[in-house]
Backbone:
């Protein structure tokens, strides 16, 4: 079975271009079959972008885990032009699209590479880790992101995720509380929760 969280999607390529506006900024994205939310930037990602874009992260790099074709990371790169944003996904097709979309939107302060979660992430002191986690990959994978993120944040660094209440937000909140010792719901729109935990200094 082919999923957007497969490393090598086998579905036939069928690229299309979508245009969207987020917080007054216009973006063009090339998408394809075999990637998450092919036809439009999904609402959860939009809520995550607008929330993260206004967040006071400590100084340093940001990491988008499960970047798909790149909307969240590319938006953050425009919101924080003085920071480098690293973007990772297990899906090779998504990574190729994310690179193309960075070029399309003339974004240069990004580093985009294939990684199964944190497998190939070398930097260990991000100011922020942002993720719209792959819910369909299952609770185990989602909770692995929440748990391992702790090891990749600098002191004072923030983990921010978006997750629908009906798709496991209460359980994710408990997990983040257990890992970080703190969690806050910093935004709520149409059932989508933005949860944030801080790595205490």
Residues:
């Amino acid at each position: 079975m082919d999923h957007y969280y497969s490393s090598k999607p086998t579905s036939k390529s069928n690229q299309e271009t979508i245009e969207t506006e987020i917080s007054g900024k216009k973006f063009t994205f090339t998408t394809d079959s075999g990637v998450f939310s092919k036809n439009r930037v999904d609402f959860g990602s939009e809520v995550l972008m607008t929330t993260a874009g206004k967040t006071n992260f400590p100084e340093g790099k940001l990491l988008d885990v499960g970047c798909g074709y790149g909307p969240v990371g590319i938006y953050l790169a425009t919101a924080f032009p003085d920071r480098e944003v690293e973007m990772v996904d297990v899906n090779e097709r998504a990574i190729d699209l994310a690179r193309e979309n960075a070029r399309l939107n003339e974004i240069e302060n990004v580093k985009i590479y294939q990684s199964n979660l944190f497998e190939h992430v070398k930097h260990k002191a991000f100011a922020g880790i942002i993720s719209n986690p792959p819910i369909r990959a299952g609770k185990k994978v989602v909770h692995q992101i929440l748990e391992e993120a702790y090891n990749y944040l600098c002191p004072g660094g923030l983990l921010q995720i978006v997750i629908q209440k009906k798709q496991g937000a209460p359980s994710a909140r408990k997990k983040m509380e257990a890992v970080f010792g703190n969690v806050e719901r910093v935004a709520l729109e149409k059932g989508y929760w933005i949860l944030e935990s801080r790595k205490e200094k």
About this structure: The beta strands are 16-22, 25-31, 62-65, 85-89, 110-114, 126-131, 153-164, 184-189, 192-198. The first strand starts at residue 16 and ends at 22.
